[in-house]
Amino acid sequence: MKPRVALSMIVRDAEKDLPRCLESVRGVVDEIVIADTGSSDNTRAIAKAHQARLLSIAWENDFSQARNQSLAAVTADWVLMLDADEQLDPAAHESIPTLVLRSGVSGYMVTIRNYVNDLHERVWDKPAKVNDSTLESAQAYPAYLEHENVRLFRRDPRIAFLGRVHETVGHSIQEMGGRLEKADFCIHHFGLTAGPEERTRKNQFYRELGRRKIAERPGDAQAHFELGLMEFDNFHDFEEALRCFHRGCELNPKLTVSWLFAALACLQMRKYAAALTYIRGAQMQGYCTPLVLETEGDAHYNLGNYPEALKVYRRAHEADPASGGLQSKLAMAELRTGETDTALRRLRRALREEGHNPEIHDRLVLALTFTGHLSEAAEAAEAKLATVEPDVTSFMRAASIRAKLQEWRKAQASVVAGLQKFPQSGRLRYALSEIQASTGQGSNGPP
Fold it and tell me: pLDDT per residue over 112-121, tens digit each?
């Protein structure tokens, strides 16, 4: 008999996303179980319209508890888990019927494509990828981040979600000696494309749940790392992030990503020697990715160890030649060790390949200024203003270089353009008054 598949979900006020999610599983699942944790919109009506078995459950700030209540109501042989802001990839319509026929497999690791609005975002130590999706609802986003989680698994009383937040059934499958394999389909996730207000609300909520998870599982290295990542990425509390990452390293030295992020937190706090200590900890565990090498290079560079930084950046660049940001760091190390022409050529090449990266623009401006090419530095600074979304500092930098060249009209043009975008900026207003004083215009001179 063909194995039956159920969709298991928990939802709350999901009327905007739920229809698209449920349409994506039409023809794939034989059963839909949705646990509602207190919706006040049309979520329940949408679920019923899709013939879902609807449960009403109390929300007790525990994702695993809620998911397990939904899971307990499933009668099918296999379970597919989605959130309302996700969609099943069309390829799964052919893959899932085959995957659930395999004997001896308890569950499948599924790739999650997390769409984002910026190519510079990352998940853990993985950078964003350029969006190549053909899915219509994904076309608006420039990039996505990938991670894996167990989302398709057998219904088995021994398999349950664990963890108040960042919950998974993977741990219970491993504890029972079950076999996990990799699925050949993906899930599309749109939650990271939410607006700033919604993202802030979610981050505060997940931060609190992360703290509770640690209180309940103080010996869980992964829980400490997860909270550290929240503090690092979303709240920029690098001292607290470092404390969490350090504890993760203590509890499980093989959690190599915790060593890396401890080093990254140290870099943010300008504790460069400490960053090298954590990088060595990662490398002692056999963890030596391009990002690990890049972080090591950053620490050496900021310590003024330019020859060592050059050596490490070269190794990182060999491992990841497509990274324009890394190539620009290598160029700065070449500049500091006297390879001026090579450095400038490399920076211009990196900018051609990754012109959307503001850091490469800044490094080219810095290198041209450092080598005395002020006219070219001014042009590069102005090119950044026209290429990427500028900030106050970018306008100030362009104006400052023109001022050094005593090209006051061009300096003033950059400041005025900045004030049009940031009219409340005290720095830009002060710069304008200084330029006017230098040119004898006075406070009532031409803008």
Answer: 999 999 888 8
